[in-house]
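**User:**
Make up any protein.

**Assistant:**
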Amino acid sequence: MPRDERGVTLIETLIVAAILVLILAGVYSFLLFGQKLYFSGAGQVELHGPVRLAAEKINRKLRFAGNVELLEADWDPDAASTDDCSYIYFDAGGGEVILLDSDGTQILSEGVITELTFSAEGGVLLFTIRGEGDSADFALESSVKPLNLIGSIGGPAGAQALRFSMPH
């Protein structure tokens, strides 16, 4: 056979196949990384929304409060009187933030909340909401200064419930 009609050798075919496998492995790992990043971000977005919404609802309820009191850990929502005041508390069993008032019980959050704690600095109420999803954790610290506050906010720091009333 003349030299110029020679075909591709087995070694050359194997080298080309090995190079293609390396290129495809690189592309696959890049796509896998992108997919992991997407699902991680989607999990964070699914968690941030409910936590931020719960914080906003707490802010709205307390913005015009006249009296705010942080409650002890042994506080019992079943024994609470809602004649003159309302309550916001964390239900660990359902993972929900709940408003209890004269209209009944209203859930302020989805069941992704893992912790809600209140504390006070003078006339400012500070609170932290933590949430946990399948692939992410998120904590949001917020504060609200009740505009009609009479006196200061009393009670134990780290409380998971509070009582508030609106001025008459």
Summary: Residues 10-62 form the longest helix (53 residues). The chain has a mean pLDDT of 89. The first strand starts at residue 67 and ends at 70. Residues 19 and 49 are 46 Å apart (CA to CA).
